[in-house]
Amino acid sequence: MSNYQLGLEFAKQQDQNDQLSSFRNKFHLPKDHNGNELVYMTGNSLGLQPKITKDYINQELEDWANLGVEGHTEGKNPWLHYHEFLTKTMANIVGAKPLEVVVMNSLTANLHFMMVSFYKPTSKRYKILIEADAFPSDKYAVESQLRHHGYDHEEGLILWKAREGEELANYEDLETILKNQGDDIALIMIGGVNYYTGQFFDLKRITDLGHSYGCIVGFDCAHGAGNVKLNLHDSGADFAVWCSYKYLNSGPGSLSGAFVHERHAYRKDLNRFTGWWSHNKQTRFRMRDEFDQLPGAEGWQLSNPPILSMAAIRASLDVFAEANFDKLCEKSKQLTGYFEFLLLELNNSDIKIITPSHPNERGCQLSIQVLNADKSLHNKLTEAGIITDWREPDVIRCAPVPLYNSFMDIYEFVERLKTILN
Ligand SMILES: *Cc1c(COP(=O)(O)O)cnc(C)c1O
Asked: Are both 256 and 382 inside the same structural domain?
């Protein structure tokens, strides 16, 4: 649908026609001091709380209160297997097989654990390629891996940069880098959806290209999971990681997901860090056995996991399953397309959308560059009851999330923005 229209009536009509509009009521929407609902556009940073989350967590608190340690086996949702309740829905959201997915640890930690197995530098091939404006934590992580293996983190890091005067990374430039330096690169690690520009990369294209030069290819999908169809299995990527507190609405600091491609599922030659939770489930509690590697992504677990956080993830994944991820992605394209339409209609030279205009090359986020790099615009939006976030040097990131944002949210956003700009 591309015949968007200006005006309040159109926004109202779209919300009325939206089959998913009732999902907004399943979330707690933040309010201002006077009790008025805020326009929340930062689900890309911290997703909102589903109303059922409290019940899911309370269930586990109750089992803990009533059963103590027996909750591991006798609880309503036995804790021993709790992470398995998440696997299928999570795998569906990221487009993977259940064998390829596990929920464990937090995001940057998982990135390191993946690199323990998949960054295997040799004296001839040790460099790591990342996108130039990668999320800082990812950059710090790969730099420290370089140092950990005894390499200089500046010399060992190759940056895939946007061209002078452009904001988006260009595939031709990646091809050129690989043509010239592909044999030096051990690992390509890219943010599947760039946190700053909102650019959704073609994971399969990057993976195929990387593999053709003998590189391992992994993605940080923190801004992709629950936002776009990642199709991780079909992409052929070696590994991926993501967090569950952004689009996956599982609460601040909640656990991360990890994907390891099926082709690595039964490998015993990969170096890994292990713990009792990486050990064969059948014999884990004999406690005296020699280590027996659990197959698939689960084999990368170390510890018994925090059930209270997992309960929040489970609640959120149940909401996703009820809404249907395909339908959410459909709505997302309409919401963001409408948002783009209204912003472009403002025709204001102080702002510019830097996110790709093609719906297949972005998720729901639009990054609005403020041309005089003035943070006061962001502050004024906040005062006007609109929650967005500012990213240095000059971008306001806005993410209308199809689960709980409405066409009216977008209409209100742009109306208030217009007033501020004038
Ligand atoms: C949000 C985000 C992080 C945050 O990492 P944590 O370990 O969860 O604190 C890291 N990388 C990317 C790409 C992100 O978007």
From this structure: no
